[in-house]
C-alpha cells in the first residue's frame, strides 16, 4: 500500500498536467504606456490589438479594457487584454504570427512596460 499511494498520486499529477497542456489557455497582457505617449498613438495601439482577432485565426476570443479599479494597485498599468486560445499550440502560433510581430513593432515606441501572464483556467 505504501508504494501504491505515491504511484497513484504521481499518475494523478501527470494526468492533470497532460489535460492542462492540451486545454484552453488565457494570455493576459497589461500595458504601461510612456508618460509622453500621444493619446492618438495609444488609441491606435488599442485599435490594432483588437484587430488581431480578425487577423490571426488562432485567437479564439479577445477582450480588453482600461483600468477602473478603485484600489490604486495598478502600478501604472492602464490597459489589460485577455486573449483566449483553445490550446497552448494556438498561443504559440499567435506569438510568432507576422500580424502579432507587426503589432509589437508598432507598440514598442510608446510602451514603457508590459506584464504578461498566461494561465490554464481552473474549474
The CATH architecture can be named as: 2-Layer Sandwich
Main sheet attributes: strand count, strand direction, barrel closure: 4 strands, antiparallel
Share in β-strands: 25-35%
Q: Count the beta strands.
A: 4
Number of contiguous helices: 4
Q: Considering DSSP H and I runs of 4 or more, what fraction of the residues is helical?
A: 40-55%
CATH classification, class level: Alpha Beta
Oligomer: single chain
| Physical arrangement of strands within the biggest beta sheet | 2-3-1-4
Order of helical and strand elements: HEHEEHHE
Q: Indicate the low-confidence ranges by residue numbers.
A: 3-19
Q: Terminal Cα separation, in Å?
A: 31 Å
**C-alpha Rg (nearest Å):** 19 Å
Instruction: Give the domain tally.
Output: 1
Overall, the morphology is: globular
Broad structural category: alpha+beta
What is the name of the CATH topology?
Alpha-Beta Plaits
Mean pLDDT level: 88
List keywords for this structure.
disordered N terminus; 4 helices; 123 residues; Alpha-Beta Plaits; four-stranded antiparallel beta sheet; alpha+beta
Tell me what the structure shows:
The chain has one domain (19-119): Alpha-Beta Plaits (2-Layer Sandwich). The chain contains four helices and four strands. It has helices at 4-22, 39-55, 88-96, 98-107; strands at 25-33, 61-66, 79-85, 111-119. Strands 2-3-1-4 form a four-stranded antiparallel β-sheet. The chain is globular, with a radius of gyration of 19 Å. It starts with a helix and ends with a strand.
Amino acid at each position: 500500500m505504501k508504494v501504491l499511494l505515491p504511484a497513484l498520486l504521481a499518475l494523478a499529477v501527470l494526468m492533470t498536467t497532460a489535460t492542462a497542456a492540451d486545454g484552453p489557455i488565457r494570455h493576459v497582457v497589461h500595458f504601461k504606456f510612456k508618460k509622453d505617449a500621444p493619446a492618438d498613438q495609444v488609441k491606435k495601439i488599442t485599435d490594432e490589438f483588437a484587430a488581431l482577432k480578425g487577423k490571426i485565426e488562432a485567437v479564439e476570443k479577445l477582450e480588453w479594457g482600461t483600468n477602473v479599479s478603485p484600489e490604486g494597485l495598478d502600478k501604472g498599468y492602464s490597459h489589460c487584454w485577455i486573449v483566449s486560445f483553445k490550446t497552448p499550440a494556438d498561443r504559440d502560433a499567435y506569438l510568432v504570427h507576422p500580424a502579432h510581430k507587426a503589432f509589437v513593432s508598432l507598440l514598442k515606441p510608446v510602451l514603457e512596460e508590459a506584464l504578461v501572464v498566461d494561465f490554464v483556467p481552473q474549474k
